[in-house]
Amino acid sequence: MDRETDFCPSVKNILLLDSEGKRVAVKYYSDDWPTNSAKEAFEKAIFTKTQKTNARTEAEIAMFENNIIVYKFVQDLHFYVTGSEDESELILATVLQGFFDAVGILLRIILETDANSIASKVASHSIDSGAPLSEQTISQALATAREHLARSLLK
């Protein structure tokens, strides 16, 4: 590493997994996991390592494969932020809190309880090819979140 990047905080990935460890939304900023199967194996491994912890009241920190993982669980959602082993836990925790708050704001817009209405709104968002790629990704993440919410309400 050159001297300039030594001082620049960096996040390797941000993960949002469901209660079974499956992807809701993920974003990788590092080439540490070059293939999709490597990414999925990493996600499964950290989910398995952390699922029995009590990270529901506040964020927890763990070391895993020379990385620092800061994570928090809320209901069926598992939030993770990964940084290198020499990264500041405080910076990673701040990123986690920002991610958590943003998802919370996005999920507050779900006021509809009629399944047919939700399905039609989700379908109309998923086929909107005119929407920018970033909005499609958020729409897809919201659709998955709606699905998990609906599933948990129907249990």
UniProtKB/TrEMBL annotation:
Annotated ranges, domain AP complex mu/sigma subunit: 11-114
Primary localisation category: cytoplasm
Lineage: superkingdom: Eukaryota
UniProt keyword annotation of Cytoplasm present: yes
Keywords: Cytoplasm, Cytoplasmic vesicle, ER-Golgi transport, Golgi apparatus, Membrane, Protein transport, Transport
Topology of the protein relative to the lipid bilayer: Peripheral membrane protein
Gene3D superfamilies the record matches: 3.30.450.60
SUPFAM superfamilies linked: SNARE-like
Localization per Swiss-Prot or TrEMBL: Cytoplasm; Golgi apparatus membrane; Cytoplasmic vesicle, COPI-coated vesicle membrane
Pfam families to which the protein is assigned, alphabetical: Clat_adaptor_s
GO cellular component, one term: Golgi membrane
Entry's Gene Ontology BP terms: intra-Golgi vesicle-mediated transport; intracellular protein transport; retrograde vesicle-mediated transport, Golgi to endoplasmic reticulum
Sequence similarity: Belongs to the adaptor complexes small subunit family.
Subunit structure: Oligomeric complex that consists of at least the alpha, beta, beta', gamma, delta, epsilon and zeta subunits.
Role this protein plays: The coatomer is a cytosolic protein complex that binds to dilysine motifs and reversibly associates with Golgi non-clathrin-coated vesicles, which further mediate biosynthetic protein transport from the ER, via the Golgi up to the trans Golgi network. Coatomer complex is required for budding from Golgi membranes, and is essential for the retrograde Golgi-to-ER transport of dilysine-tagged proteins. The zeta subunit may be involved in regulating the coat assembly and, hence, the rate of biosynthetic protein transport due to its association-dissociation properties with the coatomer complex.
Protein known as: Coatomer subunit zeta
Organism name: Sesamum radiatum (Black benniseed)
Taxon lineage: Eukaryota, Viridiplantae, Streptophyta, Embryophyta, Tracheophyta
